[in-house]
Structures are given as structure tokens and as C-alpha cells.
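User: Batch of two.

Assistant: Item 1 of 2:
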Amino acid sequence: MELIIATIVSLLPIINPFSTAPLFLAITEGDTDAERNEQARKAVVYMVAILIAFLLAGSFIMKFFGLSLPGIRIAGGILVAVAGMRMLYPKDEAEQTQAEHHEARQKADISFTPLAMPSIAGPGAISVTIGLASIADTGWQYGAIVIGILIVAVIVLVTLRLSTRMVGYLGVTGLHAMTRVMGFFLLCIGVQFVVNGLVGVVTDPHLLHTLRSNHL
């Protein structure tokens, strides 16, 4: 029970679904409630899969591919920044034919990226999960962490679904404004991820030694 509570307390502030809700509304602008709920459901499923994968094999994956947490932060930051730029400068829909617009909407699936990764299951959540795995020795302890992840997933799903009620209050103009505001903040978050990753590189003696060894 203690490990379940520790997982919830550790992950929930990092994931922070309440701050993700406005972003979710902005990047699903124009979708129906049913489409938004489906995107939220898929994003939560991806979140659970990502965190459990890193729980079970995070250290092995990072060692196998030679990845570091600062490197993951930098890559995630670039991904977030690109998504933010697209929200700040959306494609002019007037230049699209009706068929092209319909096809674009059909292909619009933000459940994995940027919603699940890195907005919900970002570098912070992944690093916390790997940290929890380091204190798990038995199958029951791993199971307790998984239960904690599932509880957090339910909280995230409920929060995102309730956020759709904001649409009626904001209207189309409000959603357009929110899209650009959230795009700016998303760009800032992406840049901050990159900065944190670079700081992690220059302050990690082991990583610097590895980079020098590989270069030599």
C-alpha cells in the first residue's frame, strides 16, 4: 500500500493533468466531444504503456541504446517546441480544398504525440518511474507501482474529459486565442526541456567522461 501511495504522490504532480487540460482543448480545436474523449482515452492508454515499459525495462533500454536522461529531455524538448510552433503559426485553412481539409482532420491524431508523449508521460514522469523501479525488488512491488500508475491514469482521463465542458464557455474565438497562447507556452516548455537537458549534460561528470571516451 505504501508503494502504491508513493507512486501516486510522485507521479501526479509531475504529470499535472490540470495544466494539460487547456493544452488538450487547444490542440483538439474543432473536434467533437466524442472525438476529444477518444483522443483522451488513447492518450491515457499510451501513457500507461510508456510508463510501464520504462518501469520494466527503462534502465536496460537506456543502456542498450546508449541514451541518457539529459538526451531524452533534449529530444522531448525539440518535439514540444515544434508542436508549439505549429500551434502559433497554423496552416492557412483557406488555401486547402474541402477534401484536403477533411483528409487532414481525419489524420489528426494527437493522442500519442504531443499529448501522451511528452505532455503527460514526459521525461519527468519517465525518470520518476525509473526511480521507483530502482527500489522495487519483488513482483508484488512492481505490481504495486503498476497499480499506482493505473490510478494516476484514471485521474488524468477524468480530468481531460471534464475539460471538454470548457468549450461551451470559450467559443470558437476563445479557442483560437487559447491555441496561440498555449502554443507560446508549449514553445517555452520545449526550450526549457532543452535547457534542462543541456544543464544535465554539463553537470554530469560520468556522462562527460563517456562522451570524451566515445569521441576519443
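Item 2 of 2:
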Amino acid sequence: MGRSYQTDRKAATSRQGAAQRTASARRATTAPAPRDFDPLIHEQIRLGIVSALAVNQSLSFNDLKHILKTTDGNLSVHARKLEMVDYVACRKFFQGRLPKTEYRLTPAGRRALERYLNQMEALIQAARSQ
């Protein structure tokens, strides 16, 4: 005896639900979780520092302060954290009688930024595909 319309409909609905759950699971595994982002770069000021340095060979402390619209203390604390993990290099020198501080992005910092940007792109793609 043949199957009823209701039975066929339930089976089709079940298959659709399974396919949707599988697609959702696939999307969920391709997008990085926010906890996977590098916390040293994910913070707003530090992301600004590495981003500004990525498009400039080097920047002075005052240039960074102006670009990021932050205070001396805030910038120095965040720059120091990036220095400690070798994402940025700091050079201090005198220009005439004035002390100058200049920052540049290190190869490790460039790789970390590239990794972070790839993770963000994957997250954006996953969000758009849902």
C-alpha cells in the first residue's frame, strides 16, 4: 500500500530540516568565534595602532595620538603592550633637543594583523550568508 500525503510531507519536512541544520553547522564552523580573535589586536586603540602602522612605514607618537584621537597615557599603555609581544617596534631618539618616539609594525605584527583581518572577513562572510 502507498504512503499517505501526510507521511510524504513529514519526510520531506524532516529532510529539509536536516539539510538546514547541516548547512547551519557548516557555517558555524567556518566562522571564527569572537573569543578566537587575538585580544591584543582586537582592542580598539591597539587595532588602530597596528592598522595605522600597516599603511605607513613608521609613525611618531604624536602622529599616532592625532590619528587615534587619544591621550598620551592611553596611547603609551597600548603601544607598550604591542611592544611586549613584538607586534610593534619603538625607537626613541632626540631631534635637536627634543625627544622623539617613533613606531613601526614588525613582521610578527603584520602577520598578526593579517590573521585578525582574515578572521574578521570569515565572520562577515558567515553573517552575510545566513
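Strands lie at 59-60, 88-95, 98-105.
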